[in-house]
Specification:
This protein has 2 domains: about 5-70, no CATH class; about 80-195, Up-down Bundle (Four Helix Bundle (Hemerythrin (Met), subunit A)). Helix content is about 45%, strand content about 20%. It has helices spanning about 80-95, 100-115, 125-135, 140-155, 165-195; strands at about 5-10, 15-20, 20-25, 30-35, 35-40, 45-50, 55-60, 65-70. The strands form 2 sheets. Strands 1, 2, 5, 6, 7 and 8 form a 6-stranded antiparallel beta sheet that branches. Strands 3-4 form a two-stranded antiparallel sheet. The protein starts with a strand and ends with a helix.
């Protein structure tokens, strides 16, 4: 079993490594420090890892077969506005916890906040997505991505008996994140290149 584990920390939202928590104990008048490991069975060792960035504790099985609290799937780009980041991060936290309907609802919400931020009109996401396309702010492909997230998010939010699977939730996060990359991250990268080349 490795004594270090790389994760995307659920606390500080950074890629980091976990180191075994030091456990201190005294015996025969002497102080000792050992790693916090518990060998439950031949192939099961639980241990407490400490995030090297924020020093918060995480419980891990073996080489990360199980980690609690669950690591987030990936960091959210800083060029995405903060309110939208919060929604997308909440979707990722829901996914990590196995709350797949909540994942879809929050991913849908992140996209709707982005649509409003980009000036879309209409009171429903379907019309806001259509408005973004008509205004030339998104392509037909992006509209299709947004509609897919909207469909799953709508099913998740309403009592219609439709289940949201782990695969559905993972796909919705990826589509929503790619949608937001096109709206915010790619333009920020292009602007940075223009500025560095003196083309602005």
């Amino acid at each position: 079993m490795a004594d270090r584990l790389s994760i995307y920390c659920p606390y500080c939202h950074r890629h980091t490594a976990l180191s075994p928590a030091p456990v201190q104990y005294s015996h025969a008048g002497r102080d000792y420090t050992i790693g916090a490991f518990w060998k439950k069975s031949y192939n099961e060792t639980w241990w407490i890892g400490i995030c090297n960035a924020c020093e918060e504790p995480v419980l891990a099985l073996n080489n990360g077969d199980t980690v609690y609290p669950a690591p987030l799937p990936s960091p959210t780009e800083q060029d995405i506005p903060e309110l939208i980041q919060l929604d997308l991060n909440e979707a990722k936290i829901c996914f990590s916890a196995g709350a797949y309907r909540a994942t879809a609802v929050m991913a849908r919400r992140a996209m709707q906040v982005a649509a409003v931020d980009k000036g879309a009109t209409g009171d429903k996401l379907v019309s806001q997505i259509h408005d973004l396309q008509q205004a030339g702010k998104i392509t037909t492909d992006l509209k299709d991505w947004a509609d897919a997230v909207r469909w799953v998010g709508n099913d998740a939010a309403h009592p219609n008996g439709v289940q949201v699977t782990k695969d559905d939730a993972e796909d919705v996060i990826q589509l929503a994140e790619q949608f937001l990359h096109v709206l915010y991250v790619a333009p920020a990268l292009a602007a940075g290149i223009k500025k560095r080349l003196g083309k602005m």
